[in-house]
Design brief:
Blueprint: H1 18-38, H2 46-65
């Protein structure tokens, strides 16, 4: 089997084409499923992902309002 498996430190390709983004997502999904199968915690964690989402939402609100928004 010559399918490349994701390593612990996956990075987005420097020149992201549609094909490379599809491969990146496939590797991310594979890593997530491997965590489920092995009983490991995915990285980033759900809490880390939620924090990032809140930061992005605050950034959008700030861009619309022109004010500093709390997270």
């Amino acid at each position: 089997n010559d399918v490349k498996r994701p390593g612990p430190k996956m990075q987005l390709p420097k020149q992201a084409s549609n094909t490379s983004l599809i491969h990146y997502h496939a590797r991310s999904i594979t890593a997530f499923l491997r965590c489920i199968n092995n009983g490991d915690s995915p990285s980033p964690s759900l809490a880390e992902g939620l924090r990032a989402q809140r930061v992005m939402e605050a950034a959008y609100r700030s861009a619309e309002s022109g004010q500093v928004e709390s997270v």
